[in-house]
Amino acid sequence: MGEQVPDGGRKTAEAAGTAAAAGSASAKKAAPARKAPAKKSAAKKAAAKKAAAKKAVAEKAAPARKPAAKKASAKKASAKKASAKKTSAKKASGKKAAPATSSAALKKAPAPRKQVVAPKKATASVPAAPAKTVAAHPQGESRTALVRRARRINRELAEVYPYAHPELDFENPFQLVVATVLSAQTTDLRVNQTTPALFAKYPTPEDLAAANPEEVEEILRPTGFFRAKTKSVIGLSKALVEQFGGEVPGRLEDLVKLPGVGRKTAFVVLGNAFGRPGITVDTHFQRLVRRWKWTDETDPDKIEAAVGALFPKSDWTDLSHHVIWHGRRICHARKPACGACPIAPLCPAYGEGETDPEKAKKLLKYEKAGQPGQRLKPPQAYLDAGGRPAPPLGAG
Length: 396
Known about the structure:
Elements: H1 7-93, H2 101-108, H3 113-116, H4 119-122, H5 143-160, H6 173-182, H7 188-201, H8 205-209, H9 213-220, H10 226-244, H11 252-255, H12 263-273, H13 283-291, H14 300-308, H15 316-329, H16 357-361, E1 382-383, E2 389-390
Antiparallel strand pairs: 1-2
């Protein structure tokens, strides 16, 4: 018979079996808990890969963002410079900085200057006259247009006065320089009536330098300012004898050193006695070149420079004769004969005088021998100051 196990031992065995089964069950439950750390590590690796991919993409995109960063830094730098300029301007002027819109206003400021030189505005100052004779006002006239207009005026005057010459009678440079000094504040005709007696008694610089001033004054009395003129002609005669051996010098710098001789007189002598070009800026010349808008200068030296720049040097002497003759005969100071003027279409001052042709012809002024300053009706020919035939000057 087999060996029997007591009840206590049986219970103990059953308890042991139960405990073993419980242990195996708990072991099974614990197994999944061990797999969890493995899943967490895989998730970490996946996240690391994604982070690496994002970093790579960011590194590729980084160069494209750098120019934008540079532009931003450049803007900041320019803003700093602008603020620095504003602060320096504030310190220099002691005033508040202008608002930001002032820069735009300053850029637009030059616009009105273009309208100042509009030729249409200036035509209002020219009196009404027939369209064919009214010249456009030269305000805003270009330099090229001014030169062309000035030279055309000179060509027109050359046709009207083809034999224009100095209206002082002389036989040598000495007589010319003395006659030119005497022509101040009087007419050439009056001088021509006076110099024959003077040169007959004192034909050379040596003779006039040794003359009795009272006797010279008596001869020069009709020319006006005879005492001052006597002092000048005797003084220049002495200077010619002492400094130039009794000969009239042919250089401007020497001529202007003589008593009573200025640039105007010097250019008359140089141009007509020595054939050296010069511009004679007398009262007629000054009046006409300003009327023609060749220059706005009033100083004779500046007028000479401005007008001389418009013409070749070879034209200067004849130009002076043309302008002076025109000023004496047609373009008078008070009543210019605009209606009889041959250059009316080129003159910006047209209308300052009489524009009616018939009335204007009566204003033409001629000097006939023995009748200084007499106004005559224009026939076909008259005698000029030297008794030579003169043109009708617009009479038809």
